[in-house]
């Protein structure tokens, strides 16, 4: 990272600090209790599904993580966040003994590059089913189509749900152009790599907007977001390539027609520049976003799972996105992996100086700057916020005055 020069400081934009009251909407009593298996991977790249479920799920109440390497710790604290009172257990037996009840579900919470799970982990699935727990999996290996596992599930009266199983061929959609009927802002949260926080940023921004009175709908494009309870979406990397663009378009159009939202957020996958995966290109084409928030892990040197592939810069990814589509990148969201708080602040300052884009880490600093960027780009959202009478915007100023000039308290950029 280049040091910030005096000239850069002079042109560095200021981004207003927002304040608002958020509404609470907790229906945890209606959620299914779930244990998440994440042996030796919780808090690491391949444990992203487990981490995401600890942070947010509208379907499951996570009552424990299984990872013997971290047994006895709290899942929230292990992610470097607040304590969530979600214990980490060494194995299923310890979990059942300490919980004193049997959870409803056993979720396979790892996202490995390998196609099939090891035999030992298969035996763990069988043990969970024999204890009366449904199996939830986001892998490409479909447990519900395995004769032995299906038989054991039937004997024990439990179900197996493969989140990544694609729709039937007759239910798939080709691109139609109906996306042009969507007349509210569509924002894609894309990234520079896999497992760098795109979904987390999308989920947090979606919650923040709704808490502000802006009706926001999130369209999921991966197995983890569907596990979290996203109502619209599909696992793009499980589809025949011909249908990816059409399925993304269909999900966005359905969200628009059914919900009549003020804004639609679309979760990204991998990276447009990643040579191993194609999902982000399909997401970019199918959703035709009006803006992009780019997620980037500054401390990461190589693509995860691909040590020979050097990470791209935000600049190169922005140029690629804006070259192959008509959209613009409107903000940067950071992953703070392997960075201290001071280092995160330094990166934020550097990026805002060099790229002239609002930059934040939503887990550390919230979504204020992203909301500000959206309000700057889309006046209808700003007007809706004003009507909702939140403190994010002053209401006693002339219509033609500049928002940032009227707010006295600023975040250092």
How would you sum up this structure, described in words?
With 413 residues, the protein is α/β, with parallel strands linked by helices. It is built from 16 helices and 17 strands. A seven-stranded parallel sheet has the order 10-9-11-8-12-15-16, with helices on both faces. Strands 4-3-2-5-6-7 form a six-stranded parallel sheet, sandwiched between helices. It has a two-stranded antiparallel ribbon with strand order 1-17. The two termini are 16 Å apart.
User: Which residues sit in consecutive blocks of at least 5 with pLDDT less than 50?
Assistant: 1-26, 392-413
CATH superfamily of the largest domain: P-loop containing nucleotide triphosphate hydrolases
SS class: alpha/beta
- The total of helices stands at 16
Index terms:
17 strands, 17% strand, disordered C terminus, Rossmann fold, 6-stranded parallel β-sheet, 7-stranded parallel β-sheet, 413 residues, disordered N terminus, alpha/beta, 2 domains
What's the structural blueprint in terms of helices and strands?
Blueprint: H1 6-11, E1 15-16, E2 32-37, H2 48-55, E3 60-66, H3 75-78, E4 88-89, H4 92-99, E5 105-108, H5 119-130, E6 134-137, H6 147-155, E7 160-162, E8 186-191, H7 198-211, E9 216-220, H8 223-228, E10 232-233, H9 241-259, E11 263-267, H10 279-287, E12 291-296, E13 302-303, E14 306-310, H11 314-324, E15 329-334, H12 341-355, E16 359-360, H13 362-365, H14 368-377, H15 379-387, H16 403-406, E17 410-411
Parallel strand pairs: 2-3, 2-5, 3-4, 5-6, 6-7, 8-11, 8-12, 9-10, 9-11, 12-15, 15-16
Antiparallel strand pairs: 1-17, 13-14
Helix pairs in contact: 9-10, 14-15
